[in-house]
Structure formats: C-alpha cells, structure tokens
Write a structure and sequence with these properties.
Helices cover about 75% and strands about 5% of the residues. By secondary structure, the protein is mainly α.
Amino acid sequence: MPNYIYTAKNEHGAEITGRITANSKREALDAIHRRNLFPISIEDSTKGEISIQLFKRRVSEKQISAALLQLAELLDNGVPVLHAFQILEKQTPNPRLKSILKNIHDRISEGESVDSAFSAHSDVFNELTVSVLRAGAEGAFLEDALRRVGGFLEKQAELKGKVIGALIYPSLIFAVGTTVVVLLLIFAVPFIEPLFDLVTSRGGSLPLPTQILLGTRDIMLSYGLWIIGLGVVLFIVLQGQFSTSWGVRLWDRFKLRLPLIGKILLDGAVARFCRVLGTLLANGVPILKSLEISGQSTGNTILSDAVRRSAENVSSGETLAKPLAEAGIIPAQVMAMISVAEESNTLETVLVNTADSMERQSAQQLEVLVRILEPVMLLVMGVLVLCIIIALLLPMFGLMEAF
C-alpha cells in the first residue's frame, strides 16, 4: 500500500507535515480531512524513491519498444488501460521497467492522464514518446500512437545494433594488433638485446630501424605510465571541453567534415530528423512542437540549429522547405522531396519514407566502409609487426656477416 507525504494546516492555522498510508490519493485526502486538517499538498513517497531503485538499472530502447507494442496490442483487444498495465508489469523481465510500469499504473488510477504518467519518467521515456502519446490520448487514437512510437523505437534499436555489430570486428582487430605489438616490444626485445650489445662491442652500429625500435621501447618502459596518465588527463580535459555548447558544436562540425564517415553521419542525422518529424506529424503533434523535438533528436547540433531557425521562420508563416534549404546542410534530393510533399500535403508520409531510404543508404555505406576498414587494419597491423621483426633480425644478419 503506497505511503503519502502531506503538508496541511490544522484548525489553528499551523502548518504540519506527515506521512499517511492509503490505497489511493483520494483515500489519503479523506483520511487527512477526518483528522480535521486542511491539505495543502500531498505526494506519493514512492515516486521519489523509484529514481534510486535498483541502482538505476538501464532500460534499453528495445525493451521500451516491446512494452509499448504489447500495450498497444492489449488495448486493441479491448483490455482496460489499468488492467493492461498490470498484465504488462507481470510480463516485463526488467526490474526497473517493472517498477516504472507499476508507478504509471498507480498514477493513472489516481486520475492522471497517460502522457502525464509517462512524462514523470523522462529518463526512460523521451519527449518524442510523451508527445506522441499525448496526441494519441487527446485524439482518441492511443493504440495507434503506441504502435507507431513503439515501431519507431524498434527501428532505432535495430539501427544502433547494426552499427555496433559492424564495428565489433575492426575494434577487435585493433585491440589484438596493439596487444601483439606491445608484447613484442616488452618481452621479445630483451631476449635479443645481448646480440645487439655484441654488435656494438665489436665496433659495429645498429641499423636505423633497430635504433628506432629500441628507442621506442625505452620510452615505453621509462615514461609509459606518464604517457598513459597524460592521455587520461587529456581525455578528461577534452571531454569537459566537448561537453560545453561550443565544444559540442565544434566536435559535431568536425565529424561532418571527416572524409567518408562525415557523409554517413550526416545521412544518419537527417534520417533521424525526418523519421521523428514524420512520426510526430502523423500523430497530430503541432508542427512547431514537432520541429522542436525532431531538431533535438538529430544528435548533431549543426543540424539542430538549422531546424531551430527553420521553426522560427515557419512560425512567421513560411513553408518548411525554404528555411531548411537555406541552411545548406540537408541534401538537395531530400529538400526536393520535402518541398513537393508540402505542396501535395503528404509531408508526414514522405518524411518517413525518406528516413527509410536514407537509413538503408547509410547502412550500405557503413557496411562498405567496414569491409574496406577490416583489410586495411589487418594490413597496417601486419606491416607494423613485420617492421618490428625486421628491426630485430637486421643486427643478426650483420653479425653473421662479421663472422
């Protein structure tokens, strides 16, 4: 049974605070009145506790989308809202999401709207989800809104999974190659170093590759910890700088100018913008609010700024395509489709279709880039190991010729 913390005034006008246990906020209010108190505020104490429960265990987009899609299916089949949340709570394996669903159920049972109950957990349900649910609740198409936002989150989770999956193998190659090089420098060189001393004791000189190798090893052994520490400090400083508004903007601009990768990142950001904007418009969210949310969801401040400026122009009566085109960041073919869609009043459909097309294109480009990256990294690591081996063997050849 929930505990409620209340603030009330007694018959003498003194303000008091207390805690009361009741099945609902209405019962708690009745109990306060029976004590001849006049309630000023009352709040469920578990709502404050839920944010620290279970050490903030993460709830993934995939789990959120699955919960929303299951909720839509239950409501479609005529299950009452409160009962649907109870069923969903029992079926959810994630403990934190289970607690959140129970809290949403309690809030709705006390008279809160669905979108308000979801918005109380903004660390799990983003503004896109809340806005679509608000439009669905107000327009009496909540099931459809749940299905659409659930499908959107599912696509986002799939795209992230593809990107992470594509980068696993190159990252593994880099980690293994770096480990091999470090082990060769630290453990292989000492076994052969007496031969180097023998060469120098006979008046010979070590080849340049060998001198570079030994110098690199000496630096690693003498200053390795200092270099690692300096790298950590530099990373922390840069992370702090890039967390500022100008730092984030500088980093986002730099990413877009990277060869090959910049085009993929831009297409991905534009695709997110189109999908979010199309989803919101299709669910009846006003265009200015839709532009605000979709601009924030791009993941790139340069594109977000362009969308924000477009929203300012749209509010003064202009079309969406004109200010977006003037920003010069969205590809021309996308702008052409948006312009035609505005004239034909099919903007939300065209935006979602454009997002589908650009995401497929970005996935193909990423796949090609990874396929090129894998052999290049193997080649670089192979050449590096070969250079180390040659640097170790060259003094031996010179020593054999001396004998």
